[in-house]
Specification:
The protein has 871 residues and is mainly alpha-helical. 74% of the residues lie in helices and 2% in strands. A hairpin with an 8-residue loop joins strand 3 and strand 4. Helix 7 runs antiparallel to helix 10, helix 9 runs parallel beside helix 14 and helix 16 packs parallel to helix 18. The longest helix has 33 residues. The protein is globular. The termini are far apart. The relative contact order is 0.05.
């Protein structure tokens, strides 16, 4: 080799990586990247094979942790190539080194949750060490070319070095703690990416911009994971008896994979995410549950096909497939919200998000019913097909179906002609108003007008983005709470199947009021979080509902893993103490909800010290519960806590008792703060508190009904009344904060009382007439019913008017006084002949009854055809 060739070849192998900010907008995915992604096929296949052999709660938890580790490895390698890779020998050599490590990682992946865990941890730590060195080299390059990026690369390289240490040290731990460390590592990565995106104006860091190649790369990885569905079907058909039903079940199951492909690539797979950091981080992270759910569904195909002849799908398999589909659909909602097209095509993606959330609920219902395997697969395919056709219909309405719009600038939305579509925040309307625009593409002045309108709409959408994101976050938390309810119900069912129904409490009748309260609180909280994102009570209501569901999941997990089937679930003993403390947290949420309703602020600055006590007391009680040596006393004294602290039991109980009294005192004080507010409130705040008073009164009535029904032994009525009681308070809280019909409250109360009394009186009268005439004409006579019906119809209107007047006189005084004034004016009108006196009196009556800001009366004499204002 001569000097002329040695120099260029050396530079080709030693060329430094691309600097930060050196973005290639028209870059396409290279063949090297395709080759790199193929290695992950074997790694993911090994993890899915482990889940296929261990379809259980523990098996899915292990699979989720291992898959998340694989995904983090892929995201690191892919992001490096996207930001700093080149078409040179250095990049090729680095990629091949990574592929060799990943091939070795695949060898230990199937048994990473048990005996192969230490080897998996060491190989994975080696991969992270290589990535740490690569990011460190990027920092050296930034020191010369772009020193403004040094803080970013230093933070990332430091995080990678810490990751190497944590994963490497986990190889020395037993299986259960090792999985907990891995799960904590995954959570730390997710939180770190969210925080990085939250603090960045553009991209996950200042040097990152979404490009077509990035979108294509994530789409290719999704295709790789979709291959697991095909592998699962083929594996299931290969190992099962291949008759007509088995093959039909496999083909229907294969269509689930096809449906997932259509849903992903037609709705989100070819569309750019927005350029702001939080949107981009959400778009990236949402692909973790999407791909995880697809891989989990592929693992469940083997069991589904193997039980093709069963009358009902096995519980584990049904829940695995249904939960995987539900999780994937909910994750797609987050992906949609992060797209540029989510603003450009708001009228498409907003209802589509709601439809996908409904599809997730439908999938969970199918998993709960557990029909025959072929029918379960068919129903899940039907859900995907319905969503796809719904999406297509929405796209066709706005003439936006087909290939994505070409992008002239990276990350910027393109104009679209939408005939009669709803446009948000148009320049001719006020802020927050929804108007309609009809636009067609044309040339000259028309085109300029269209461009001007499009610019205005884009700016308005950007201003509304924080509210839209808060709405997406609120409904995502609500969906997580509903998913937690389904998981808690599943764990309850597993406990009953294991012969331990006494430990299952979620599906018991006594738990109905608590679950109704949690669902009501979560739903109202999601509504408030989306419409009043700055108000803390909405998020507290969401936290209340979520914590109740988490309490059900954690307690079910502990009871199943320690009592029903000891040792069946990992780390159940570590959560035994925590499960007791979660109850205190949602009680603390109740206290803060009472303290901050309805304004979102404290009643006065003097309450600040009390809020600190109210926040510290439950946290201390949770800590004491977590280190309790015997967390399940007195029912199960044999259960020990590995997190126990060697403290005298008497001292621990005394401190816990005092702390519990403080928590209860904070609840009482928070309820008393509402009384203080009501006495001091004026205007709108007093009207808001009246909503709470109405809700509390109705809840008290429901409570009395429950007590009376309990005395009569009507358990069903008791549960229904208690459920109504606890559901009314969140509803009243939401109505007060949203200021729903504040000044119509008197009218609502009067109408409710009027029609309630009318129903009671007419019902009693009808019963009296039927009984009275029945004694004379016979109980079987149809004439009795006819006469009673005619009598009730005759007295309905007079009775309604008298009752309405009586109720208005007491509860709706303004309406009663207005009616009396108008009636008196009508009587005087018959005797008044002077036009000027009549005009002055008419204006006075209007001012007295309607209380407008200004009154004007225009008269048009028939002869002169002139108008003169009189005020």
């Amino acid at each position: 080799m001569t000097g002329e060739t040695r120099g260029p070849l050396k530079r080709w192998f030693l060329r430094p990586p691309r600097s930060h900010g050196e973005i290639i907008a028209d870059r396409r995915v290279s063949f090297l990247e395709l080759f790199y992604d193929l290695v992950y096929v074997t790694v993911i296949a090994q993890a899915a094979h482990h889940l296929a052999e261990h379809i259980s709660v523990r098996g899915f938890a292990e699979f989720a942790v291992i898959f998340a580790l694989i995904w983090i490895a892929w995201i690191n390698g892919s992001m490096y190539l996207e930001l700093h890779g080149r078409e040179d020998g250095r990049t090729r050599s680095i990629v091949f080194v990574q592929m060799g490590i990943l091939a070795l990682l695949a060898v230990f992946t199937e048994h990473a949750a048990d005996g192969g865990g230490p080897a998996f941890a060491l190989v994975y730590a080696t991969f992270l060490a290589v990535m740490t060195w690569l990011w460190y080299m990027v920092r050296r390059q930034d020191r010369q070319d772009h020193p403004e990026f040094l803080a970013v690369t230093w933070a990332y390289a430091t995080g990678m070095a810490v990751s190497v240490a944590v994963i490497g040290a986990s190889a020395l731990l037993p299986t259960g703690p090792r999985l907990i460390v891995w799960a904590g590592f995954v959570i730390a990565w997710i939180v770190g990416m969210l925080l990085a995106g939250r603090g960045a104006r553009a991209g996950l860091n200042p040097g990152m911009t979404p490009t077509d190649s990035l979108v294509e790369r994530f789409g290719l990885f999704t295709i790789i994971v979709l291959g697991e569905v095909v592998f699962g079907v083929v594996d299931g058909l290969s190992s099962a008896e291949r008759d007509g039903r088995t093959i039909a079940t496999g083909m229907i199951a294969l269509w689930m994979g096809f449906g997932l492909w259509w849903i992903y690539f037609d709705l989100v797979g070819r569309r750019l995410p927005r350029t702001d950091g939080f949107a981009l981080s959400t778009w990236v992270l949402s692909h973790l549950p999407i791909t995880l759910s697809i891989a989990a569904a592929g693992a469940g195909m083997v069991s589904l096909i193997g039980h093709a002849h069963d009358a009902s799908t096995p519980a584990g398999t049904g829940w695995l497939l249904a939960s995987a589909l539900a999780m994937g659909l909910l994750a797609l909602v987050l992906t949609e919200r992060a797209l540029v097209d989510a603003e450009r095509l708001f009228s498409v993606f907003q209802p589509l998000s709601l439809a996908m959330a409904g599809g997730a609920v439908a999938a969970l219902i199918v998993g709960w019913v557990r029909p025959a395997p072929w029918l379960l697969a068919l129903l899940l395919v039907a859900i995907l097909s319905t969503l796809w056709f719904f999406a297509v219909s929405r796209f066709l309405r706005v003439d936006a179906w087909g290939e994505p719009w070409p992008r002239a600038a990276v990350g910027e939305p393109k104009p679209v002609a939408q005939r009669g579509c709803v446009v948000r925040n148009v320049t001719e309307t006020q802020a927050g108003h929804t108007g309609t625009e009809s636009a067609t593409l044309g040339g000259g002045g028309a085109g300029g007008a269209l461009r001007a309108r499009t610019t205005a709409v884009t700016l308005g959408a950007r201003e509304a983005r924080p509210r839209r994101w808060s709405g997406a976050l609120a409904w995502a938390v609500w969906a997580l709470a509903m998913l937690g309810l389904a998981v808690a119900a599943w764990l309850d069912q597993l406990q009953r199947q294991a012969g331990s129904p006494e430990t299952a409490w979620v599906l018991q009748a006594a738990s109905v009021p608590l679950l109704v309260a949690a669902v009501s609180a979560a739903t109202v909280g999601a509504l408030l979080g989306s419409r009043r994102p700055a108000h803390p009570v909405g998020w507290l209501l969401l936290g209340l509902g979520l914590l109740v569901m988490v309490n059900g999941v954690v307690s079910g997990y502990v009871n199943y893993g320690l009592l029903a089937r000891p040792g069946a679930l990992p780390a159940a003993s570590y959560l035994a103490g925590v499960s007791n403390g979660i109850q205190v947290l949602w009680l603390a949420c109740v206290g803060f909800i009472l303290l901050l309703t309805p304004t979102g602020s404290l009643p006065s600055p003097r309450w600040r010290w009390w809020t600190r006590v109210a926040a510290a007391a439950p946290l201390l009680l949770v800590l004491l519960s977590a280190v309790d040596p015997q967390p399940m006393m007195p029912e199960h004294p044999e259960v020990e806590n590995p997190l126990a602290v060697p403290v005298p039991t008497g001292l621990l109980l005394a401190v816990a008792a005092v702390d519990a009294l403080i928590v209860l005192a904070t609840l009482v004080a928070a309820a008393g703060s509402l009384v203080v507010r009501f006495r001091r409130a004026r205007g709108v705040e007093r009207q808001q508190l009246r909503w709470l008073a109405v809700g509390a009164a109705l809840a008290a009535v429901a409570l009395l009904v429950a007590v009376a029904a309990g005395a009569m032994g009507k358990d069903g009525v008791v549960l229904a009344a208690l459920g109504t009681c606890v559901a009314l308070l969140p509803l009243a809280t939401g109505a007060s904060i949203l200021r729903y019909r504040l000044y119509d409250l008197d009218r609502i109360i009067s109408r409710t009382l009027a029609y309630g009394l009318l129903t009671v009186l007419l019902g009693g009268g009808y019963a009296g007439v039927v009984l009275g005439l029945g004694q004379l004409l016979g109980r079987d006579s149809s004439l009795v019913v006819a006469m009673a019906t005619l009598a009730v119809a005759a007295v309905f209107q007079p009775t309604r008017r008298r009752i309405q007047a009586l109720v208005d006189r007491r509860f709706n005084r303004r309406r009663y006084d207005a009616a009396q004034t108008i009636q008196a004016f009508s009587a005087r009108l018959r005797q008044q002949v002077d036009l000027d006196s009549l005009t002055a009196e008419l204006v006075g009556v209007v001012e007295q009854t309607m209380q407008p800001t200004q009154v004007s009366l225009w008269l048009r004499p028939q002869a002169e055809r002139l108008a003169r204002p009189i005020a």
